[in-house]
Amino acid sequence: MTASELIKKVFFFEILQGLALTFRHMISPSVTRQYPTEKREPVPGSRGLHALVRDTETGKEKCVGCGLCAAMCPSQCIHIYTSEGDDHKKVVDRYEVEVLRCVFCALCVEACPFGALALSEVYEYSGYTREEFYYTKDRLLENWDKNMAGEKGRVYFEKFWRPKAVDFALPGPAKSGERKVV
Amino acid sequence: MSINGILWILIKTISVVAVFLIHVMFVQLFERKAIAHMQSRMGPMRVGWHGVLQPIADSIKLFFKEDIIPTNADKPIFYIAPIIGVIGAVSSLAVVPLWEGFSIANLNVGILYILALSSVSAYSVILGGWASNSKYSFLGGLRSSAQVISYEISMGLSLVGVMMMAGSTNLSDIVRAQQQGNWFVVPQILGFTVFFISALAETNRVPFDLPEAETELVSGFATEYSGMRWALFFMAEYAGMFVMSALAVICFFGGWSGPDFWIFAKVPPVIWLILKVYGFIFLYFWIRATLPRYRYDQLMRLGWKIFIPVALANIVLTGVIKILWK
Asked: What are the domain boundaries of chain A?
């Protein structure tokens, strides 16, 4: 071994360099974020707990029960039960999400043509029993009202997801004098 | 021996051991916080202000843990092994002089006594590994025994230089010989280096902690010990660290002597001893946070082929210089 290598070995040169590095780290501030007291603000658009959008005009949910979100979901965590209401319209009886199964992929939000489903930024929803993780329609709507209502919800759909219903209007009922061909 | 004398020794013993047990608890917290900050994180922060009460929580937990004994373990030896380690380490405190004239036993063979007890505490590792009747423990115990006996030689030899310079093995005499400001670390720098590295190996600390390497042998010889028994092994390790640091400070860094000018002369000498010993203990932790581990054959090669010759060369050099500069 060369003379400089020998000198470095005898005088612990590289070990002292290592010790200096750890000392430098010791006197600089730690990077730990102490969780319950210091939380990180979720980035806008983060995917968390499900929320059903409440239509501001009618005051009820925008969901029509098409079932596209349930069909898309890779974990099959959305369950929709509909029935025929008066005037041959589809009525959503039960809309339930098993939030423990959700992988937060947001394919359901992307699939919904009416922008009736959103993923809020809530990630702290722990509980003690399995039952409280089977979210029913009311709880989902409640999540929307609490966390995403108003400006935030509007911006969510403007900035991040553009439901089909915005660009492709649904055909309405026949106007007077018109005849429906197809 | 008068009753007064026995009472005084009893008081000294009880106070030293009590303070020492508290030290062992809190030095473990010091280690966790120091190493954590070196790794850019904070150590325990929840229990008490910044984790100060963490050792108490740990002690309570260890006290109530289930005492599991492996099926075919050799029971008497299994029980005795941790106790031997603790005896070896804590008994060494009896000769450590805390300040002028205060040591529980002012032995004329102080250094020899400490070296002998560290050899005895090597038994605890071997017996612990053997009695556990499990592969990992057994290997850990064997490796540790070979390591300890190799490095004991270089440790003893490195202290011979100090003995030659001070003219005695009495620890108080060694400190008195350094009180004029001529700490032995400067003339005996080789001896000090060999001593400190051998002390690292004796107490099974990084970079020589293969016997208890957490990533290699689970917990080495202490794998099968749970609860209070494990706490005893662990206490023996920290006690060994304290004793080795104290020995290094006494033999090389002037023991309880501190600067003699200005306001520093008013400070009680025990404070200087404590500061220096804690400085060395911090050096133990600092090295633990920095260095990787030696492989077993590299470790043995270091001990036999490098440190023993260096320690012997140190002795010859010291002797020659002493004769020439008579």
From this structure: 50-165
Q: Is there a contact between B38 and A23 if contact means CB atoms under 8 Å apart?
A: yes
Strands in A43-108 per DSSP E: 50-52, 78-84, 90-98
Identify whether B207 is preceded by a cis peptide bond (ω within 30 of 0): yes
**Residue A8 has which token pair?**
């470095």
CB contact under 8 A, A22 and B286: yes
Alpha-carbon distances, residue B278 vs A11, A137, A155, B89 (angstroms): 24, 63, 59, 17
Which residues of B sit within 8 Å Cβ distance of A? 34, 36-42, 45, 286-287, 289-291
Beta bridge partners of A83: A91
Across the interface, whether the CB atoms of A25 and B290 are under 8 A apart is answered no
Is B42 in Cβ contact with A23 (below 8 Å)? no
One digit per residue, the tens of pLDDT, for chain B of length 326 reads: 678 888 988 998 999 999 999 999 899 999 999 999 999 998 898 888 888 999 999 989 988 888 888 888 778 888 888 899 899 989 998 898 888 878 888 889 989 999 999 889 888 888 888 887 777 778 777 888 888 889 999 999 999 999 998 888 888 888 888 888 788 888 889 999 999 999 999 888 878 887 766 545 556 666 677 778 888 888 888 999 999 999 999 999 988 887 777 777 788 888 889 999 999 999 999 999 999 888 888 889 999 999 999 999 999 999 999 999 87
Of B42, B289, B291, the CB nearest to A30: B42
Q: Which residues of A touch B192 (CB under 8 A)?
A: none
Domain at A50-165: CATH code: 3.30.70.3270
Degrees to nearest 5, angle at CA B262 with B260 and B267: 65
Helix (H, G, I), strand (E, B) or coil at B268: coil
Q: Does A23 contact chain B (CB < 8 Å)?
A: yes
Instruction: Tell me the ipTM for this assembly.
Output: 0.81
28-57 of A, contacting B, C-beta below 8 A: 28, 30-32, 34
Which chain A residue lies closest to B282 (C-alpha atoms)?
A23
Q: Model pTM greater than 0.90?
A: no
Contact A32 B39 (CB under 8 A): no
